[in-house]
Structures are given as structure tokens and as C-alpha cells.
Write a structure and sequence with these properties.
Elements: E1 2-5, H1 7-15, H2 18-33, E2 43-44, E3 52-55, E4 60-67, E5 70-78
Parallel strand pairs: 1-5
Antiparallel strand pairs: 2-3, 3-4, 4-5
Length: 81
């Protein structure tokens, strides 16, 4: 699998704090190794067909779709809870 970055994801990642950026790259490695990696806590995002959510850290999440042999990264945001 490959990682494909949307323009929105790219902007959001650049705007995120440096420690969140570092944590994302670590999590991206886990995603490429296995969608089931326990650190990701990946799950289908409720209410939106085809979109997945995974954990960056306790406060941040990233959203992606899966298709064409790639994880298409949609956005990275602070978790609303």
C-alpha cells in the first residue's frame, strides 16, 4: 500500500504542531505495516461511508480512505472530545 496525500491533508499537517507531525509519521509507518496495528486504533468513521479514522496521539486523529492500493489521507485534526 502507498500513502496519497490530499491538498487538505498536506495543509493541515503543515499547520499542526511539530510534535503532532512527528507522531503522525510514526503512525503512518504503522499504517503501512498493518491497518490493525493497536497503536492506530483504526476504525470506520461513523456516518461517512468509506472513511476511516486513526489515532495520531490522544488529542489528534487522521482520516483516510482505502482504494486503488493506497491509503488516501483526507485530513488530520484535533479530536473534538
Amino acid at each position: 500500500m502507498d500513502l496519497v496525500f490530499s491538498a487538505r491533508f498536506d495543509r493541515s499537517l503543515r499547520a499542526a504542531p511539530e510534535e503532532v507531525q512527528r507522531a503522525f509519521w510514526k503512525q503512518a509507518g504503522y499504517l503501512l505495516a498493518s491497518l490493525d496495528h493497536p497503536s492506530l486504533r483504526a476504525k470506520k468513521y461513523q456516518g461517512v461511508t468509506g472513511v476511516w479514522q486513526a489515532r495520531v496521539n490522544r488529542a489528534w486523529r487522521f482520516y483516510f480512505t482505502i482504494g486503488g492500493g493506497a491509503y488516501c489521507l483526507v485530513d488530520i485534526v484535533m479530536h473534538p472530545k
